[in-house]
TrEMBL record:
Residues 16-311 form the NADP-dependent oxidoreductase domain. GO terms for cellular component: cytosol. This is NADP-dependent oxidoreductase domain-containing protein. Pfam families: Aldo_ket_red. PANTHER family: NADH-SPECIFIC METHYLGLYOXAL REDUCTASE-RELATED, OXIDOREDUCTASE. SUPFAM superfamilies: NAD(P)-linked oxidoreductase (SSF51430). It comes from the Bacteria.
Length: 321
């Protein structure tokens, strides 16, 4: 069973792995989503991360139905977002107070709940930061959200937002940040992770398996059923199909073969137990994929393997000191 971890210095406690829903509505249908949540919760998971943009509202609506038919609302920590959407082929970011609170109202309606456990600004926008954060104060102050966080903010943006909330008593503190982090994407270690640590915030890495590349499935080409083969997601995978990434994948596969672990499990363990990480978000599309990842409960990578993977992907993680 999964252990629980505190989110920063807040009172929010979540499972050490989270379930992401970005592919719900595109690669995951409602029945499959229900099976994923049932498997996740039965293994001690409670953190489910979603957003209005995922499937154009499908992910939230489906999760709402799942909480009525499959698992109890009380078993789930819902993390959703606001301020980002897809309209036709274009993506829009609107972090104005009106847009954020409209998104929140829509999320509550689709999820069929009266509150969000963790409400997050999905991306840095053009609206004044103080206006966006005032929406957070309103949401938490009125009970529509219990805690607040940010997503895809770089280092200075993270600190600016956290400091603004700390500047005046009564403002709602930010408890978490979310950004990409894996053996193929360690940029968060430069500024984002130190900022989160300084402000005592939790960290939810998305795409801990390097957008699926660290599974090893792309070693001999692009499988037909993979994200890389889909017109709407090939752009997401392509940056990690270069020579450097292939070398990292081979190192991960070699480590796994000596530890009786799959490449996916090696990559996930490295992220899960990295300094400052609260809970990596899993984008599994099938129960079989998810079960293999959940099987890392109670397992750890030997320190020499961690150091070797650090070295092959850019050097020692300075936060390990």
């Amino acid at each position: 069973m999964m252990r629980k971890r505190q989110v920063g210095n807040s009172g929010l406690v979540v499972s050490e792995l989270g379930l992401g829903t970005m592919t719900w509505g595109s690669s995951v249908d409602a029945d499959e989503a229900g099976d994923l949540v049932a498997e996740f919760v039965s293994n001690g998971g409670n953190l489910i991360d979603t957003a209005p943009a995922y499937g154009g509202g499908f992910a939230e609506q489906t999760l709402g139905q799942i909480m009525r038919d499959v698992v109890s609302r009380d078993d789930i920590v819902i993390a959703t977002k606001a301020g980002f959407g897809t309209h036709g082929t274009s993506q829009t970011i609107d972090t104005s107070r009106r847009a954020l609170l409209d998104d929140l109202a829509g999320s509550l309606r689709r999820l069929g709940t009266d509150h969000i456990d963790l409400w997050q600004i999905h991306a840095w926008g053009d609206a004044p930061l103080e206006e966006s954060l005032a929406a957070i104060d309103h949401a938490v102050g009125t009970g529509m959200a219990l805690y607040a966080g940010i997503c895809n903010f770089i280092g200075w943006q993270t600190s600016a937002a956290a400091m603004w909330q700390k500047a005046v008593p009564g403002r709602v503190p930010l408890v978490s940040g979310q950004i990409e982090y894996s053996l193929l994407a360690r940029r968060a270690e430069i500024e984002v992770l130190p900022a989160l640590r300084y402000h005592q915030m939790g960290f939810f890495p998305w795409s801990p398996l390097g957008r699926g590349v660290l599974t090893g499935k792309y070693s001999n080409g692009t499988p037909r059923d993979s994200r890389g083969a889909k017109d709407n997601l090939s752009w997401f995978v392509e940056p990690y199909l270069d020579q450097r990434s292939r070398a990292v994948v081979e190192a991960v596969k070699k480590a796994g073969s000596g530890l009786d672990l799959t490449p996916s499990q090696v990559a996930l363990l490295w992220v899960r137990d990295a300094p400052g990480v609260t809970a990596p978000l899993l984008g599994a599309r099938t129960v079989e994929q998810l079960s293999g990842l959940l099987d890392v409960a109670g397992k750890t990578l030997p320190e020499p393997i961690v150091s070797a993977l650090d070295d092959v992907t850019g050097g020692q993680n300075q936060l390990r000191k």
